[in-house]
Amino acid sequence: MAAAPDSPPPPGEDDGRRRKRHGMLKLYYGLQAESGNKGTTATTDPCDINGAHFKPEVYLQRLMQEKSLNELMDKERDMVRQIRSLDSDMQTLVYENYNKFISATDTIRKMKNDFKKMEDEMDRLATNMESITEFSARISGTLQDRRQQITKLSGVHMLLKKLQFLFELPARLKKCIEMQAYGQAVRYYTKARTVLDQYQHMPSFHGIREDCSVIVAELCVKLREQFKNKESDAHQLAECVDLLLQLKEPADELCDEFLLQ
User: Fold this and answer.
1) Low-confidence ranges of the chain (pLDDT < 50)
2) What DSSP element (H or E) covers 215?
3) Where are the domains of the chain?
4) Which residue among 28, 111, 209, 252 is least crowded, i.e. fewest CB within 10 A of its CB?
5) Domain Exocyst complex component EXOC2/Sec5 N-terminal: where (predicted)?
6) What's the pLDDT tens digit per position in 53-79?
């Protein structure tokens, strides 16, 4: 039977055709069975064009028995429109799904490349961290040895400075007495007296101690002279007493002399 030219669909038939088209698409994609499994009873009518049990021969025979020629031609036009509409819908669906598939494929490929780059960077980072750790360990070992050497050298340096101070002490005391810096001389001597007393059994320290004792005796004489000087004011007298006490002069004797002033 030849297809008649398409004519505008009668009013009120858009919803029906849309439902039929959706039903056909569901049937094509196997969604009708899923709907039936959810509680909807599937029809077994062989003339239900949207049903799973549709039989074209039975459907055509019923149409020829129940429809007139004009109705058959209208039905043909309606089916042609539905076929074209379904074909367009399927092409649209295929195109959209194909684009989504291509986009998903590109995304997966990009993610794979990104993960590959990230994995390579992580491997390089791990290698660099191992190198840094090894290098840091070598530096720490080297610095540890040098730190111990520096500590030893620092201790030796401090000891040498103390020894230098002790060896220069007699000359310092004489210089202070010449400059009448009696307070500074007493501070020098009291600073070194404990060490000199502790190591007096050693010849070098014994000689320094003897020289300092002679100079300190001279210093005590100078302080007593200033202490007995009637022109000395109270501040000078108090300073002389304090210095003589630091040099371990007898306190009772100093008190008596102070009271006699």
Assistant:
1) 1-9, 11, 33-41
2) helix 203-228
3) 15-109, 158-260
4) 252
5) 49-250
6) 778 888 888 888 887 888 888 888 888
Looking at this protein, which amino acid is placed at residue 66? E
Instruction: Give 164-209 pLDDT, tens digit per residue.
Output: 888 888 998 899 888 888 888 889 888 888 888 888 888 888 888 8
Asked if 196 and 212 touch (Cβ cutoff 8 Å), the reply is yes
CA angle in degrees (0–180, nearest 5) for 168-172-174 = 125
- Cα atoms in the Cβ-side hemisphere of radius 13 Å centred on 94: 7
Outline where DSSP puts E strands in the chain: none
Handedness of CA 208, 212, 215, 218 (dihedral sign): negative
Which run of H or E residues covers position 247? Answer: none
Q: Which two tokens stand for residue 74?
A: 């209208």
Residue in the block written with tokens 């501040």: 235
**Rounded CA separation 45/23 (Å):** 15
- Residue range 158-260 in CATH 1.10.3720.10: no
Distances (CA, A) of 21 to 3, 18, 25, 72, 81: 20, 5, 6, 20, 10
For residue 220, give the nearest of 259, 192, 171, 253 by alpha carbon.
Answer: 253
C-alpha closest to that of 171 among 230, 212, 222: 212
CB 101 within 8 A of CB 29: no
Tokens matching residue 126: 């791990």
Tokens 């209208």 belong to which residue? 74
Q: Quickly list H helices, 229-260.
A: 234-246, 251-260
